[in-house]
From TrEMBL:
This is Dihydrolipoyl dehydrogenase. The lineage of its organism: Bacteria, Bacillati, Actinomycetota, Actinomycetes, Pseudonocardiales. The gene is lpdA. Belongs to the class-I pyridine nucleotide-disulfide oxidoreductase family. Its main location: cytoplasm. It is an enzyme of class 1 (oxidoreductase). It comes from Saccharopolyspora oryzae. InterPro entries: Class-I_Pyr_Nuc-Dis_Oxidored (IPR050151), FAD/NAD-bd_sf (IPR036188), FAD/NAD-binding_dom (IPR023753), FAD/NAD-linked_Rdtase_dimer_sf (IPR016156), Lipoamide_DH (IPR006258), Pyr_nuc-diS_OxRdtase (IPR001100), Pyr_nucl-diS_OxRdtase_dimer (IPR004099), Pyr_OxRdtase_I_AS (IPR012999).
């Protein structure tokens, strides 16, 4: 029996951050993790997809090298090399996390945790994933009838993340129908791929495979792609995808997938019912809490109808000494939110103060063009009763974007009309994921349009777009034509 001040179940971006912070506060800390440290984010989500998207970006840049006066011949994709580079990046980062845990004195216990009480677990050995080396091990049930370790703690943090949702779709079990996790097991670029779901996951895989040469169809049931984003951003991404040769079907649903002589046939219902031929069908319609094999009922913690663990502002559950962070809480299924929740939970357990503001959470989608946002969309701001002013500034009007050769997209600022307080920032365009930080900081510091506009931004940079968009929202744009007077 091992005993700790704090036991963290799950070593993802929430769990390992919580463990490190708690150890820094002087607590004895253990982490139970069934695969490599880093969770879905480092192993099967954020990092590997971005590594592969970077390969696609380089390939596309080289294809258009002549536009920059550079002549390149015989350009081709080595997909095995793309996958090897991805695995190398992942290994470097997960090894780094393992090193950080060790350096901070955190004990890592490899295996699958099952609760035996609110603050006690049995740890079991796990089998290999059905997907092999390219698949997450949470797909495998624990092996053996006896635990390999028993662990107790004064406090416990549940940080087991999420898994892809499986659609109850006829044909979902056919060979070639995969989730985003299964996509990592593909050993070649599919000739034809149909992607069900046009949110971040589906849109990123659509970008990757379309760039590498696949014939891509993407099906989304809402009016626009990335429906959680501002409507103008979703429409812009749809136009961009269409120009890139991606077949975009919105306000459409898939009713079934059938085996065909030369692959799969996807039946799409909507304004224009049709069938799509595909070699691979990727289902990317969301995620659910990864708690099915935890024996969570033995903790007594309360969950929502969808199975997410209910927590308060300090990440405390209804059971004393039991906390939950990250995707299992359903607050915002983002790695950086999990990390911040981990810090809040660890600081609370250690008797310190920390807080999280769910109104200021930046999000990024690594499509081409990139998408990033923080705060309210224009529609959300109006629905909340705000009298708003909204303005856009195009990347095409930036000298840096012109010189870089990527002028697609815009920044949109949503602000209060009376005081100019920033309510939301929405970007589609090059480096949107980096540029959104200014919007998040503006909201966190309660900045106004005047303050953004009066802040000197370096030139020529893409970052100038924040200043320019603020000036446009004030009705005083310098580098675009002024709005027409009514």
């Amino acid at each position: 029996m091992q005993e700790f001040d704090l036991l963290v179940v799950g070593g993802g971006p929430g769990g390992y951050v919580a463990a490190i912070r708690a150890a820094q506060r002087g607590l004895s800390v253990g982490v139970v993790e069934k695969e490599r440290p880093g969770g879905v984010c480092l192993n099967w989500g954020c990092i590997p997809t971005k590594a592969m998207l970077r390969s696609a970006e380089v390939y596309e840049t080289v294809l258009h090298a002549a536009d920059f006066g550079i002549n390149v011949e015989n350009v081709s994709v080595d997909y095995d090399a793309v996958r090897r580079r991805k695995s190398s990046v992942v290994k470097g980062l997960t090894d780094g996390v393992a090193g950080l845990l060790k350096a901070n004195g955190v004990t890592v216990i490899n295996g699958h945790a099952r609760f035996t009480g609110p603050t006690a677990v049995d740890v079991y050995a796990t089998g290999e994933s059905p997907l092999g080396a390219e698949g997450p091990r949470y797909a495998a049930e624990p092996t053996g009838a006896k635990p390999i370790e028993q662990v107790k703690a004064r406090d416990i943090i549940i940080a087991t993340g999420s898994v892809p949702v499986q659609l109850p779709l006829p044909g979902a079990d056919l060979p070639g129908v995969i989730t985003s996790d299964g996509a990592f097991g593909l050993t070649e670029v599919p000739k034809r791929i149909a992607i069900i779901g046009g949110s971040a996951v589906g849109a990123e895989w659509a970008t990757l495979f379309a760039t590498l040469g696949s014939e891509v169809s993407i099906i989304e049931m809402q009016k626009t792609l990335v429906p959680a984003e501002d409507a103008e951003v979703g429409k812009a991404l749809g136009r961009s995808f269409t120009k890139r040769g991606i077949k975009v079907l919105t306000e459409a649903t898939v009713s079934r997938v059938d085996q065909a002589a030369d692959g799969l046939k996807v039946t799409v219902d909507g304004a224009k019912p049709q069938q799509i031929d595909a070699d691979v069908v990727l289902v990317g319609v969301g995620r659910k809490p990864n708690t099915a094999s935890l024996d969570l009922d033995k903790t007594g913690v309360a969950t929502s109808q969808r199975g997410f663990i209910e927590v308060d502002e300090k990440l405390r559950t209804n059971v004393e000494h039991v906390y939950a962070i990250g995707d299992v809480t359903g607050k915002a299924l983002l790695a950086h939110v999990a990390s911040h929740q981990g810090i809040v939970a660890a600081e609370t357990i250690a008797g310190q103060h920390a807080a999280i503001d769910y109104n200021v959470i930046p999000a990024a989608t690594f499509t081409h063009p990139e998408i990033a946002s923080v705060g309210l969309t224009e529609a959300q701001a109006k629905d909340a009763g705000h009298d708003v002013v909204a303005a856009k500034f195009p990347f095409a009007a930036l000298g840096r974007a012109q010189s870089y050769g990527d002028t697609e997209g815009f920044m949109k600022i949503v602000a209060g009309k009376k005081y100019g307080e920033v309510l939301g920032v929405h970007i589609i365009g090059h480096s949107a994921s980096d540029l959104i930080t200014e919007g998040a900081l503006a909201m966190a510091l309660e900045a106004t349009l005047d303050e953004l506009a009066e802040t000197i931004h370096a030139h020529p940079t893409l970052g100038e777009i924040g200043m320019e968009a603020a000036m446009a929202a004030l009705g005083l744009p310098v580098h675009v034509a002024p709005p027409k007077k009514r």
